[in-house]
């Protein structure tokens, strides 16, 4: 199992520095890219006739975004993880190759038997000419997990390899939350099958190896919710009081005493009008 696509969001990095590092890692060259709606500056990394990745700078957030697909994705992931280990992964595709007669039907049967009745599946491409290659998908596109099973050896740009039985199960994973995206930056390709329950079951059946279900780390707090709310919501004001040398406990006690005296003299309870 390996990466077949890898995307990363890097905070505090320089566009050119990231692009040059990737080019070195995948043995490519940096070229000027075409600006996009969200990215005013774009560089692309070419490996021979194909684009291995592109890098964009988002001015409003200061984030550098990287997106790469194809055979250089493992090297791309390795380079980003070495240079910027604290990045986020909004998307990654993991894939494996099977080259044997009847592989498509066999893997399709395994997936159908393990995906669960509620998970939708269907053909994305079912051409009249079987030589054009089939693509079958499971899950919801844009969801956390989306699986494609396709006849890779019949793809037009792979016909030169003369591998008509070459089939590829490819899982597209899109972690939902920032903590999940941060965790994904440290995960091995096989671990991405654990982001959803059905993908975990399918992955185990395909690879015949255990896959751990992804469980985000649960933050443990040393104080109750009310105390944390007060401390975080009014942090700036409380820090100013500390810096001025105020005794916060005594100040609060004086405020409560004044409020109680006001209530006794007016019969009004609650915040003063």
Shape annotation:
elongated
Could you state the order of secondary-structure elements as H and E? EHEEEEHEEHEEEEHHHHH
Number of helices: 8
Secondary-structure-derived class:
alpha+beta
For the record, the count of structural domains works out to 3
- Tally the beta strands: 11
Radius of gyration: 27 Å
Estimated share of beta-strand residues: 15-25%
The N- to C-terminal Cα distance equals: 66 Å
| Average residue pLDDT | 92
Fraction of residues in helix? 25-40%
Largest sheet: 11 strands, antiparallel
Low-confidence stretches are: none
Description of the molecule:
By secondary structure, the chain is an alpha+beta fold. It has three domains: 1-87, Double Stranded RNA Binding Domain (2-Layer Sandwich), CATH 3.30.160; 92-220; 225-266. It has eight helices and eleven strands. The protein has helices at 15-26, 73-83, 103-114, 178-184, 197-207, 225-233, 235-243, 248-266; strands spanning 2-11, 29-32, 41-47, 50-58, 63-69, 92-95, 98-99, 121-125, 135-139, 145-150, 166-173. Strands 1, 2, 3, 4, 5, 6, 7, 8, 9, 10 and 11 form an eleven-stranded antiparallel β-sheet that branches. Strand 3 (41-47) and strand 4 (50-58) form a beta hairpin. Helix 1 crosses helix 2 and helix 3 (103-114) runs antiparallel to helix 5 (197-207). The protein starts with a strand and ends in a 7-residue tail after the last helix. The model has no long low-confidence stretch (mean pLDDT 92).
């Amino acid at each position: 199992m390996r990466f077949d696509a890898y995307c990363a969001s890097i905070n505090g990095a320089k566009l050119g520095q990231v692009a040059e590092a990737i080019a070195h890692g995948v043995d490519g060259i940096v070229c000027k890219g075409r600006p996009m709606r969200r990215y005013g500056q774009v560089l692309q990394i070419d490996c021979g006739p194909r684009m291995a990745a592109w890098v964009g700078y988002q001015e409003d957030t200061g984030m550098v975004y990287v997106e790469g697909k194809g055979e250089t994705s493992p090297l791309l992931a390795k380079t980003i993880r070495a240079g910027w280990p604290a990045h986020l992964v909004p998307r990654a595709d993991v894939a494996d190759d099977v080259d044997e007669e009847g592989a498509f039907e066999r893997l399709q049967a395994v997936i159908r038997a393990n995906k669960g009745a509620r998970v939708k599946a269907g053909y994305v491409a079912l051409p009249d000419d079987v030589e054009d290659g089939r693509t079958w998908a499971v899950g919801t596109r844009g969801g956390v997990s989306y699986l494609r099973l396709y006849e890779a050896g019949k793809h037009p740009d792979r016909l030169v390899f003369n591998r008509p039985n070459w089939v590829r199960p490819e899982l597209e994973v899109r972690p939902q939350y920032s903590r999940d995206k941060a965790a994904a930056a440290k995960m091995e390709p096989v671990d991405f099958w654990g982001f959803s329950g059905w993908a975990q079951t399918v992955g185990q059946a395909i690879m015949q190896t255990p896959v751990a279900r992804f469980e985000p780390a649960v933050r443990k707090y040393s104080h109750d919710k009310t105390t944390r709310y007060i401390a975080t919501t009014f942090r700036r004001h409380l820090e100013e009081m500390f810096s001025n040398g105020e005794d916060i406990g005594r100040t609060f006690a004086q405020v409560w005493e004044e409020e109680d005296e006001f209530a006794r003299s007016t019969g009004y309870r609650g915040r003063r009008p």
